[in-house]
Amino acid sequence: MDLRIELKKLMQEKGYSFQAVSRATAISATTLNLWLNNNYVGNLDKISDSIHSFIIREKERRYKQTIPFVETSIAKNIFEIAQICHINGEIGVCYGRAGLGKTFAVKQYARQNSDVILIETDPGFSTRTVLLELHKRLGLSAKGSLYAMTLEIIERLEKSGRLIIVDEAENLPYKALELLRRIHDKTEAGVLLVGLPALVENLRGLKGQYEQLYSRVGVSKKLEPLQFNDTEMILKEVSQDIDAISAFHDLSKGNTRVLSKLIMRSARVAIINKTSVDKSIVEETFKMLIV
Fold first, then answer.
1. pLDDT per residue over 196-251, tens digit each?
2. Which of 12, 39, 142, 204 is deepest in the core (most CB within 10 A)?
3. Which residues contact 252 (CB under 8 A, 6 or more apart)?
4. Residue 39 burial by CB count (10 A; 0-12/13-18/19+): exposed, middle or buried?
């Protein structure tokens, strides 16, 4: 098939714009348009090579295995704590090691509950950053002094029955955590802090000096690794081979992130080789992962 026809077909199937293809190929949208219409007079081989590579990559992405949300024991625990905080206006904490699927679960809870404000933190988050995020999510201007924004947030949240979820909350400094505590005290809005075990240490303080903050936590849950029946549920559309399922579970050690990567890689290998996912494929695929 002519490369131009193949690209046009791909763009139509995927709904890609000239700008999207331009970003992916490092070819300007103007040049791309000229090339597609056979009007480009520059280095045709260079353009053709870039377009060919792009089309191959897109075809490869068709093998990508998507993993739907499954209500695992981890998700159930997070949902349970979130509902308590949401309904009763509590401060709650869910914590566990990296890769358990905490972020996946809180995003799903937020999708299911439109009155939830989900803040996904980064290591550089400050007290002001938290205020700006809350201000914006509440439909406010995200402008003004810290004091003024805090008052507007409190006014908007008071008696609202809403829930604030902070993911990777171990990134927040003490003053930001204390700010959330004050907003909770004045509005009775629920707050759920989700993160690594370090989050609990941050709430207590190294010497237990943050008692006023930690004492406000009404409910907490330490999240444990996936159970075998969780792995079975996640894998129901990928493999029914009990040996393969056991290999998935044993090799991932109950870590949702590792399991997800293993599923996606194994499924792709099986599709390419026109076979089903079995124990040998899982074990070979695992060797390619960094865990």
1. 999 998 888 766 667 777 788 999 999 999 999 999 999 886 777 899 999 999 99
2. 204
3. 226, 231, 258, 259, 262
4. exposed
Query: Which ranges constitute the DSSP H helices of the chain?
Result: 3-14, 18-25, 29-36, 44-61, 73-88, 102-112, 127-137, 146-157, 174-187, 198-204, 211-214, 228-235, 242-252, 256-272, 279-286
Residue 231 one-letter amino acid: T
Which domains are delineated in the chain? Answer: 3-61 (1.10.260), 73-222 (3.40.50.300), 228-286 (1.10.8)
Distance CA 12, CA 145 (A): 48
Is this structure's pTM higher than 0.85? no
109, 105, 127: which is closest to 164 by C-alpha?
A: 109
User: For the chain, how many residues are written?
Assistant: 291
Sheet of 163-167, strands arranged across: 116-120, 163-167, 190-195, 91-95, 217-222
End-to-end CA separation in angstroms for the chain: 41
